[in-house]
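Lab manual, section 2.4: Encoding a predicted structure.

Procedure: take the sequence of the chain (192 residues), apply the prediction step described in section 2.3, and record the output as C-alpha cells. A sample record is shown.
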Amino acid sequence: EIAANQLAKAIADKAPLMGQPQRFVTEAEQTVVHKGDLRLFLPLDPLFENLMPAKEPLQKRVTRAADDQPAADDALFADNEVPVALVGTSYSANPNWNFVGALKQALHSDVVSYAEDGHGPVLPMLSYLKSDAFKNSPPQVLIWEFPERYLPVNNEIGDADPQWVAELKQAGARQQNVAALNKSETPDRAQN
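Recorded output:
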C-alpha cells in the first residue's frame, strides 16, 4: 500500500492518467500463517526449528471495483486502452501481497499485471515488450517492479534476441542524454 500510494502520487504529479477515475475498495479476507523468504533460505528446518525466525501472520486482502462502479462489460463502446500495466516479480504477481489491488485503489484506475513468479524482473519485461498486448495497446503508464537485490546481478535475457536488447539499451541511453540536455539548460537559455 505504501509503494502503491507513492507511485500514485508520482504519476499524478508527472503523468496524470487520462480517463474517468474509478473507485476500488480493499477488504480483509482471512489471516493465515506465513512462512517468509528468510525461513526458506535458512537450512535449519526441521532439526533446529527453534532457531528459525517465527512464522508471521498474514492478513490476506482482496480489491474489487466499488459497488457504484459499472462493470467493465456494461459499457457498450468500452475503451480498450490499458491505463496502467505492471511488470515485475513474484512480489507483484503473488496475490498474497495484493499489490495490483493496492495500485488500483491508489491510482483510481484499472491495472493489468504482467508480473511473473520465478523469472526475476528482466524476463517478464522483455516478454511484455515483445508481446502483442504491448504492441497493439501500450499502456499510458508502465510500472516495473524491480527488487533491489537484482540491481548488482547480471540478469538473464532468456531467449530474447541480443540485438533487440542492445537496441532497447541504445534507445534508453539516447533518451537519458536528451533528458540530461534538457535539465542542463539555464533559465536564460530556456527563455531564448
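Check your result against the sample. Residues 69 and 96 are 25 Å apart (CA to CA).
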